[in-house]
């Protein structure tokens, strides 16, 4: 029986149907690096090995494999499949040049591909430009001009604003709600006037 990784950790990366999802992960990488996906027989070999099947059991359980001899599946199809996966994972920088993909480490190989994919997505998201806040520099229906965003919650945003009706233009922290009409309304729940840097007075 092939040793599988921790199920909960693997499901977080590739979903609940682990063997099929892991096969898709490897297939997608092959298509990305080689320009064409794995064929159905190659996918059957991968998924069968991930499920702990022998080549005899793969031949019995997968219709695509039933017309092939067991020795052909193992010594030819699987041999060149592991070679292909080794080259693809090396090209992607997932395994070292002296590492090889085999039956025994196929789960680990799929896990490493999934981890790299998750890391790449995280990096791409972190590099996305942050859209400008439409509230900044906007004047509310009260004598305040918003100058900085402080914090967001599920139902509201809190901004730092200046009171334009007071000579020294003291800073106020105002909680603002965004209505469905895209109009901003200042709530009466909380308003703090920052009279001094170390003093906050509720008004």
Cα Rg: 29 Å
Strand-pairing-aware structural class = alpha+beta
The parts where pLDDT drops under 50 for at least 5 residues are 1-5, 177-203
Order of helices and strands: HHHHHHEEEEE
Describe the fold and architecture:
This protein is an alpha+beta fold and 203 residues long. It folds into two domains: 7-126, no CATH class; 144-202, no CATH class. It is built from six helices and five strands; from the N terminus they run H-H-H-H-H-H-E-E-E-E-E. The chain has a five-stranded antiparallel beta sheet with strand order 1-2-3-4-5, with no helix packed on it. Helix 2 packs across helix 5 (70-91). It starts with 6 loop residues before the first helix and ends with a strand. The model is unreliable at 1-5 and 177-203 (pLDDT under 50).
